[in-house]
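pinned: reference chain
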Amino acid sequence: MQEHDILALGLGITAPWRLVEQRLDVSEKPHVLKLRLEADRGAKFPCPVCGRSCKAHDFKEFTWRHLNFFQHHCEITAKVPRTKCPDHGIKRIDVPWAREGSRFTLLFEAVAMTLVREMPVTAAAGFMETTDHRIWRVMAHHVSRAIAGLDLSDLKAFAFDETASKRGHNYVTIFIDLDRTKEPVVFATPGKGKETVAQFKAFLEEHGGKTGNVVEVVCDMSKAFLAAVGENFEDAAVTVDWFHVVQKFTTAVDDVRKAEAKTVKMPNATRWAVLKAKENNLTPEQAEALVELEAGGFLTATAWRIKEKLRWVRGAKTRRAARWRLTHFIRHARQCIGDAPAFESVRKAVETVERHFDRIIQRWTSTHTNARLEALNGLFQAARARARGYSNTETFITMIYLIAAPIGNLLKST
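pinned: its structure tokens
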């Protein structure tokens, strides 16, 4: 086997293409292995539209960056023909080693897509000795193509929530298929609010899904979200996730703590002592702070005890028991806070639970939960870190899809 044959085999070159020249250019830094391909004289090529075998009309030279050859960069150059098809006219053919419009080979892009799943894009670009802008363009192409091919005809239950895309009031709303055990993200869009649900409805219908097939939606207690679900998925049952109930009271406790800290000296480590779960690895200082809060009759201690009683509600085994416990919890909370202005945030949290009582109780009937979405939020924020340096929310969405969408092997052709 000749050296040309070995390299051609490694490149996956097949007839009518053949490797006709290889040259190491040491005048460039780093050195570049330059490979030239040519098609057999008189060869015919498939029309890129219909596949009909046609003669070449003319040629134009292109160059693609390939994977490094040891420590050297590698470039492939070839004169690519345009065919003259009787039905579709003059069209540039597709070459088997690269996609249309790219100046990277498919193998180069395959390695790039593998790396960006595991490290920041800037690091992957540095490793492959190219620019992060070019890697982002590769990612955007393959991810958008894969998302366009999603089949959502079996989607019957989904959850959605927003996550911060960058500092300030910038958000992305993410939708997950609750029946997918792996890679559940099926849609992500900039912003938050009613319009994101309408966008998801349109996306669902474009990908084979039907709103009438959706039997359950899991979300938080946002008025905008609940109204949008009612307008776009009117036949679906709505479940308010327990995570958001706890979050509402946790925020209320912190509001009470902040207000009380302005008037009295609070025990050290109070902040994290009341925000953490009681059995959740409290430090000695935090455990001591809880003891001092309760012994000292602090208002923060009262708010904290109300929040902790949610654990008792959550432990109910049946829907009937949950209904009784949540009713008891609301009555107990109101008795504890009375009309004291200091507990206004707790009072609002109780009122929110009352408004969404039936949707919260739905949790005991549903087999789905938003907890998976909350667990994925850590991955999404890691994705944001990988996309750092970019103000474009679309890069964040691209990374979310790459990490958590069911898009499989993006470059099967390689």
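why pinned: The chain is about 45% helix and 20% strand. The chain has a mean pLDDT of 88.
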